[in-house]
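Reopening this ticket.

The earlier resolution said the output was attached, but the attachment link was broken on my side. Pasting everything inline this time so it's all in one place.
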Amino acid sequence: MQLGDIQFDRQPVFLAPMEDVTDISFRLLCKEFGADMVYTEFIASDALIRNVNKTKAKLEVSDDERPVAIQIYGREVSPMVDAAKICEEANPDVLDLNFGCPVKKVAGKGAGAGMLRNPEMMLAITNAVVKAVRIPVTVKTRLGWDNDNRIIVSLAEQLQDCGIAGLTIHGRTRAQMYSGEADWSLIGEVKNNPRMKIPIIGNGDVDSPERCREVFKRYGVDAVMIGRASIGAPWIFREVKDYLKTGVMPEKDSFENYLNILKRQIRLSVNRLGERRGILHSRRHIAASPLFKGIADFKPTRIAMLRAETLEDLFNIMDGI
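Inline output:
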């Protein structure tokens, strides 16, 4: 598979862009565990061109995480073009356009998945951004706005005509948000459309090595993107990549080893953001980590971890599990 000048090995697996999750420390860890490409948190074009410091900070990329994509969202052509040029100066390998975020504060204002109600504007933005920058431009979107408007098959062709280098499809509509099951059948239909020449990346409910291998085999996608299953579990990329290469499920590490990885992730956040902000940022990973599932009477411990305010207190709780 190839995106622009970037050549990937067979069956690449990407880390999905996720707000308040895919900061640089988490991306570097996922890269270390085998993610073939990583994406920044999504960046608001309006805030970027207004020079908002918190937004600008999301542009930070490292050579150690390449190839890396910066993702932006917006609802108008001019701000998206201006933001794309700013992103290009940060020197990512790929610029990704977010037309898939379903949350109300984004989609409800017409950006993200809200663009699925205004495909003409989506295409105008895509066409303008592709022409404005020299780096490869990709798009991430959904099947459609709702079940009655699953427009992705025809939309994919139109996006390809704009000159994008690749297309990521999340197998849900905006109306579904993250509920129900992702429908990969339409992702497969796009991939198997003989008019489609660009790489198709599938996304949605890939939470295990077996599922990743299945969607590659059944739907023929060029790459798979993993999102929520990586939160608090960056090691999923190592497990998935090992299984894809060997066809044999890798042996699980010990609980202690997984716990040490999670603690290392927290330390990286604290080193970058300071103790208070680093711990706050890590709480989503702690809460979502599959490492603690199935432990009897674990709720009080989970609450204690999420209330800990110092690294010492947090690690003391974790070491006592």
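Reporter confirms the inline version is readable. The first strand starts at residue 2 and ends at 3. The two ends are 43 Å apart (CA to CA).
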